[in-house]
Amino acid sequence: MTLCNAGSLLAILAVLFASSLSHGESPSPAAQSLIEELNLTESTQPIAKQAGWNPKRVVVMLIPALMNTSDNFETELQKAAGDVELVFDRTGSFVPAPELLVGSDGVVGFCTPPMLKNADARLLWVHNYSVGMEYCVGASETQLENIVFTNNKRLSGPAIAEHTIAMLMALTHNLPAYQRAQDEGKWQRELAAGVTFGELKNKTLLVVGLGGIGTEIAWRAHGLGMRVIAIRRSSREGPDHVDYVGLSGELHSMAGTADVIVNALPITAETTGVFNKAFFDAVKPGAIFLSVGRGKNTVTSDLIFALESGKLFGAGLDVTDPEPLPKNSPLWHLPNVIITPHVSATGADANQRQRIIAVENLRRYVNGEPMLNVVDMSRGY
Fold first, then answer.
1. Are residues 88 and 56 in the same domain?
2. Whether residue 109 is found in the same domain as residue 244
3. DSSP assignment, residue 42?
4. Cα–Cα distance between 320 and 297 in angstroms, integer?
5. Tell me, what CATH number does 295's domain have?
6. Does residue 374 fall inside a structural domain?
7. Which of 6, 79, 170, 308 has a 20 to 30 Å separation from 238 between CA atoms?
8. H/E element holding 292?
């Protein structure tokens, strides 16, 4: 038998082996429910067809946020892994010790430069607990070609969307001013004069970045009676509750028609600094700007000018540039700004979804099935 034929036979046997492993196996009801509810996508081909697929050893980084959602997380992982060795990193660190990575073909945790640097040559799959892939840098060309990267995209969408709507409601009803009065023990009915934005019904909300998060925000805004428009990079397709989907080149013209603008973008070379002076000049006077994408999407000095000049009614910021926001930043002291420290994705429900999909992707990896939430590393999402 030639080496070529032997290689082909091994590939066929690998796929058959994957099929035998997955026979009778299927996603848990919880995982299947999330796949359908959040429209999670799977890869076009099973990972068993990836060169070098032969699961033997997977490192799992155990973090409190996920451990606290279930007493059975480790048991669920062990069941999903079957005969594949699981190595648990219990340090809570973002980077597993180099010795844990030796011989490992899979990593469930955080994708970071040190992890990629210390990774074994056999590494074939990395599941990133975070949605953002901006810290998953430093991979060699060989790693980018050989490794399948997956992440938690769409899983935090509901939590981030609720956080976004909460900031919007707080700004339109002048709640930050009432909170300051409460802290001082003052009964200030005159603060009602600051409720000038009006009700949300029939106002226009622009979602910039109609991905998993943007879609969840759009659905909630539509439920409040708002007219929802959106911008996405890939196409003009969108859900029924979005009236119009524009492309990137329409950002400024669409911003001029919106009462509320939401940044739900990932960070890429194209999206860095997209909310700049030219953008804020184009914004409809008196609009609200909400940012739950990435801080570097926005030029901070230009945002501050738009707020101080009165061009913007207010801003709700869960992400800033830089992070943490320096103590001397003027943003802290502007009365029409709400700041939260990049926490909109957190919460018991979001953590539970992340746990469920981490287990499900491990099951799929071991069984050689198509993976969920595969990241296009050339795009960064």
1. yes
2. no
3. B
4. 9
5. 3.40.50.720
6. no
7. 170
8. none
Q: What residues make up the domain containing 361? A: 3-155+349-367
Token pair belonging to 212: 């998993």
Q: Measured between alpha carbons, how far is residue 7 from residues 14, 52, 142, 151, 326 in Å?
A: 11, 11, 20, 31, 57
Give 285-315 pLDDT, tens digit per residue. 999 999 999 999 999 999 999 999 999 999 9
Asked if 354 and 331 sit in the same domain, the reply is: no
pTM (two decimals): 0.88
How many helices (H) and strands (E) in the chain?
Answer: 14, 12
**3-class DSSP state of 121:** coil
- Residue 376 in any domain: the answer is no
CA dihedral sign, ordered 308, 217, 214, 338: positive
CB environment 192-214: b (16+ within 10 A), e (fewer): eeeeebeebeebbbbbbbbbbbb
- 289-318 CB burial, b ≥16 within 10 A, e <16: bbbbbbbbbbbbebbbebbeeebbbbbbbb
Report pLDDT digits (tens) over 154-175. 999 999 999 999 999 999 999 9
